Amino acid sequence: MSEVMHKKAGMEDAGLTDPRTSLPIRVSTTARIKYRKYFDERYSYRDVLYDLGNRQLNEIIAQDFAASAEGAIHMFLSKSSDIASKKREWIEIRKVNTRRAFNYFFSIIRPDGIDIISTSTKYNVPKKPRLFVPKS
Predict the structure, then answer these.
(1) What is the dihedral of CA 33, 37, 38, 40, to 10 degrees?
(2) Predicted model pTM
(3) Cα angle 77-115-121, degrees, rounded to a multiple of 5
(4) Residue 46 contacts by C-beta under 8 Å, 6 or more apart in sequence?
(5) Of 33, 96, 100, 134, which residue is 20 to 30 A from 60 by alpha carbon distance?
(6) Which domain holds residue 64?
């Protein structure tokens, strides 16, 4: 018998609203770690982001994410969705078309906000991408 454990990452409010969904943006610890590591490895001014507090870094990440509002490229239901009760949480993948630290954002659309769960510099687009505007 195996047990399945779903870890919920700590989300912190970024103080900005997503232009695509009009929901408040929250940022996960994973996204902050990726930003800090990315700048640590690539830039000489790494101390600028590495030493920032979470609140300031959340705002930077949320601004980058908000710039991807027109770049949604794929959506699918999360494993935590319950079709029977109509509780659906959509995972949305967005591409930023302007030059940013990361080209892709992975987020979960929830009734009370949109959570940035991860970022990436690359993404393999599926052969049949799905995209639609979820109802809040």
Answers:
(1) 140
(2) 0.77
(3) 85
(4) 39, 40
(5) 134
(6) 11-120
